[in-house]
Amino acid sequence: MTAAHGDAGEDEVGAFVDASARLTGFRAEELRSLGMAQAYRAVVLAQAGPLRCARLVDALSGPGAAAPVALDGELLELGRDVTHLWYTGSWPGGQGGGGSFVVSSASYAAGLVWRAVGVPAPGNQLAGYGSWASVPDGTEEARWAGTSAGASAGVEEAR
Questions:
Q1: Whole-angstrom Cα distance, residue 24 to residue 85?
Q2: What is the pLDDT of residue 3?
Q3: What is this structure's pTM?
Q4: 96: left (phi over 0), alpha (psi -120 to 50) or beta
């Protein structure tokens, strides 16, 4: 973690992504596909400092990386902050005393919370002309539940 945040090597960004994968529960490839790894690493370096960032990455990677890791004290707080960053696209303000902030509009849209819930980020993707007239995917069964047509189709009414 000796490179400045602007010119981070692929190994350093890769190690940050691998550690982030342990924290978020998403695969490293999924995190890389968001295109936010360098920006998020730069935020963590600026807010928590290179030493704490390196300590967190070292604690979550290397030999035995698949084994459970017990973080405590400031590393636990930093781990929570990094998880929050990936899920919401915003820094929670726990480290560095700079307060909370949204990294960028792209980070909001890339937030893992939207992938976890299975919906696009609100206000980010246009649904398209006339999309309101179509039944959303996965709701056809719910649409017919409670009607006589649903009962005859084998859909039980919720009580």
A1: 10
A2: 42
A3: 0.72
A4: left
What distance in Å separates the CA atoms of residue 26 and residue 88, rounded to the nearest whole number? 14
Helical segments of the chain, H only:
10-24, 28-33, 37-48, 50-60, 73-88, 105-110, 112-117, 140-144, 148-152
156-to-42, 137, 143 alpha-carbon distances in Å: 52, 19, 12
Q: Confirm if 54 and 61 have CB atoms less than 8 A apart.
A: no
**CA–CA dist 130, 99 (Å, integer):** 41
Backbone angles phi, psi at 30, to 5 degrees: -65, -40
Phi and psi torsions of 91, nearest 5°: -90, 130
Q: Which of 110, 103, 138 is nearest to 124 (CA)?
A: 110
| Inter-helix orientation angle 50-60/10-24, to 10° | 60
Q: Which residue has the higher pLDDT, 78 or 4?
A: 78
Using a pLDDT cut of 70, give the percent of the chain over it.
Answer: 69
What's the one-letter identity of residue 103? V
Question: What six digits make up the tokens of 146?
Answer: 């409670």
Q: What is the pLDDT of residues 17-35, one digit of tens each?
A: 999 999 999 999 999 999 9
Residue 90: phi and psi, rounded to 5, are: -130, 150
